[in-house]
Amino acid sequence: MTKKLKTIAMIPARYEASRFPGKLMKDLEGKPVILRTYEAAVQTQLFDTVYVVTDSELIYETITGAGGHAIMSQQEHSCGSDRIAEAVADLDIDIVVNVQGDEPFTNTEDMRNVLQVFYEKDADAIDLASLMTPISKIEDIENPNNVKVIVDQASFALYFSRAPIPYRRDRDVESIYYKHKGIYAFRKQAVLDFAKLPMRMLEAAEKIEAIRYLEYGKRIKMVPSDAPAIGIDTPQDLEEARAILKNKQS
């Protein structure tokens, strides 16, 4: 029998976002975005514990005040993976899932599928796993806020970019575009290694932390998802999220 891996979720929550400051505390049908995200992760029932890890006392108090688990970062961090690495260093765990704080509609099936790869035949080759969803609208493909990913035949990531990849030089050749969905499942050692490795040129250029793993030879298993990725990067995204949640509640 395969040993059950001890699995937690960590939601890195930085208050100051460059594109949409304070977005995690914006109201989403009666609750802040970060609390909606936390509750969605808990409701999957896939984790031994769900934590929000933050540099903000306001976010910390919002989560703990609602009966949730939160950790205050002790150091300043430039990305979510570094924040998670600090938080899990002394925890007895096997897998930590990074749930993006601005994606309040994460669904149970996606979470289950991304965790399942650590129980399959190529599990030993996987340092971390993530999700991708097909996109076809040209505005989505060309939008730099949508990170695209290309994979090999075994669905391991080859590269991530804000640019449209692959580039269709021959328009008669069919191409499938995948948007990277911001959920990562790490082996604990992979995220600890990440925090010790300096940022290199490609990550600095694209501002995509997953690239650091590739640059240092880590292997990222990508899992297809048909559910649309709904992140909140702009005030317009927030309005769309409000409409979606209002529709779900009606």
Automatic annotation (TrEMBL):
It catalyses: 3-deoxy-alpha-D-manno-oct-2-ulosonate + CTP = CMP-3-deoxy-beta-D-manno-octulosonate + diphosphate. One of its GO terms (molecular function) is 3-deoxy-manno-octulosonate cytidylyltransferase activity. Keywords: Cytoplasm, Lipopolysaccharide biosynthesis, Nucleotidyltransferase, Transferase. InterPro entries: Cytidylyl_trans, KdsB, Nucleotide-diphossugar_trans. Its EC number is 2.7.7.38. One of its GO terms (cellular component) is cytosol. Its main location: cytoplasm. The keyword Cytoplasm applies. It is found in: Cytoplasm. Pathway: Nucleotide-sugar biosynthesis; CMP-3-deoxy-D-manno-octulosonate biosynthesis; CMP-3-deoxy-D-manno-octulosonate from 3-deoxy-D-manno-octulosonate and CTP: step 1/1. One of its GO terms (biological process) is CMP-keto-3-deoxy-D-manno-octulosonic acid biosynthetic process. Pfam families: CTP_transf_3. Gene3D superfamilies: Spore Coat Polysaccharide Biosynthesis Protein SpsA, Chain A. NCBIfam families: kdsB, PRK05450.1-5, PRK13368.1. PANTHER family: 3-DEOXY-MANNO-OCTULOSONATE CYTIDYLYLTRANSFERASE (PTHR42866), 3-DEOXY-MANNO-OCTULOSONATE CYTIDYLYLTRANSFERASE, MITOCHONDRIAL (PTHR42866:SF2). Belongs to the KdsB family. Activates KDO (a required 8-carbon sugar) for incorporation into bacterial lipopolysaccharide in Gram-negative bacteria. This is 3-deoxy-manno-octulosonate cytidylyltransferase. It comes from Leeuwenhoekiella blandensis (strain CECT 7118 / CCUG 51940 / KCTC 22103 / MED217). The lineage of its organism: Bacteria, Pseudomonadati, Bacteroidota, Flavobacteriia, Flavobacteriales.
